[in-house]
Amino acid sequence: MSRPAVADEFAPTEADRAAIGRCIEDVGEALEAGADAPGDRNDCIGVASGPCLDDERNQSTVGQVMCLARESAIWDEFLNRDYNALREKLTAATFERLQDAQRKWIAYRDANCAMPHAFFEGGTMAQPIGAHCIMEMTARRANELAVYLDWAGL
């Protein structure tokens, strides 16, 4: 069974992954160089979805949600990569604590990002706001896990 064309159009691309990766590398290099205002990894949130959202073809509710979901998928890949790396680096007891925190974080993210649907009673505004919430919270958690991975390497 083939997937709909719209799903392919909004699938994460290597260019999207590379743009976010470059942004993260730039932040890291600025930090290492002791820049006055190096920023942080969270400044990279929106790097892939921004240009997609700016495209006039994506001004519909569906277009906005798909742009945000595309970037969310990339941050989720980063989150899962680092979570699995932490599984290998942490003691069993420490990883168990991380696993518990991760489960609680997922429940919080899902409940928190469902709130726009309550405020807007399921109206069309709720969809992109909720999708943005998922993207931003997933990116921030991915960045937290990246920090944990750095700590595990000390």
TrEMBL record:
Domain of life, per lineage: Bacteria
Species this chain originates from: Nitratireductor mangrovi
Pfam family, one: LprI
Domain Lysozyme inhibitor LprI-like N-terminal: 52-145
Record protein name field: DUF1311 domain-containing protein
Cited InterPro entries: LprI-like_N (IPR009739)
